[in-house]
Specification:
- The chain is mainly beta.
- The protein has one domain (6-263): Immunoglobulin-like.
- The protein has three helices and 22 strands.
- The strands form seven sheets. The protein has a five-stranded mixed β-sheet.
- A hairpin with a 2-residue loop joins β7 and β8.
- The chain starts with 5 loop residues before the first helix and ends with a strand.
- The relative contact order is 0.27.
Amino acid sequence: MVRLGVASIALALSCAASAQDNYQFINVTDGGTITGSVKWSGPKPYLRKVPITKDAQVCDPDGLKTRDLERLIVGAQGGVANTVVYLKSVARGKAFDFPPARQFLDQKYCRYEPHILLVPQNGDLRMKSSDPTLHLVHMDGAEAYNLPFPFINQVISRPMNTTGIATLRCNGGHSWMNAVAIVAPHPYYAVTDANGQFELTDVPPGHYEIVAWHEGWEVLRHEDARDVLTEQPVPRLIFSEPRTWTKSVDVSAGASAVVNFVISSK
């Protein structure tokens, strides 16, 4: 396992702006497929929940009083969801074909859906709120926006022109809301499903480095912040750094390669 700082990982995810400028869309007729999984090894770490301290009638209809931060989701068979798997240094290949659902953010019951967004460089991220309360999306990193959502189901679009990582949080007092948007420089990115499975298709034959990236799951501390609507103090959660794991893979024309990652707290 390789552990990198946020800036280093952002740079790695971007694959460098110059590399993206040189990425060429071609008709891939002899491409291969990479499939695999990301699985958890060892005891699952303690995952902190945070209290729902605002708009309980909207945010907590089931009366649970706390919210899982969704930073680490391990399925019954050990598969790790919401891990980004991508190829490094791809010079040319297919056009972008990311799932539309990964490019559309909903704010529902005061949580972000989906938790991991995947948007092509120079593509648009579309956003709405399904909640009858005011949310304020604060975005840092690859792109920086502050967007109010005062009306239910009003869709707002913003361009995502810079490759890398953008973190999302709510500045409207819902401090537990968090998500990540990956702005990708090429289409060979995937997000693992609930079983930890992924697939990359139409990969030009060749030798690649393949990376599994996880946002990190620990809450390191709280910092003082304010609800911009009420000016009341609220805790801002500070999370541990993302983690990456790297392997090599050879892709042959028309063939399928399998890459499995095993990750842990160590």
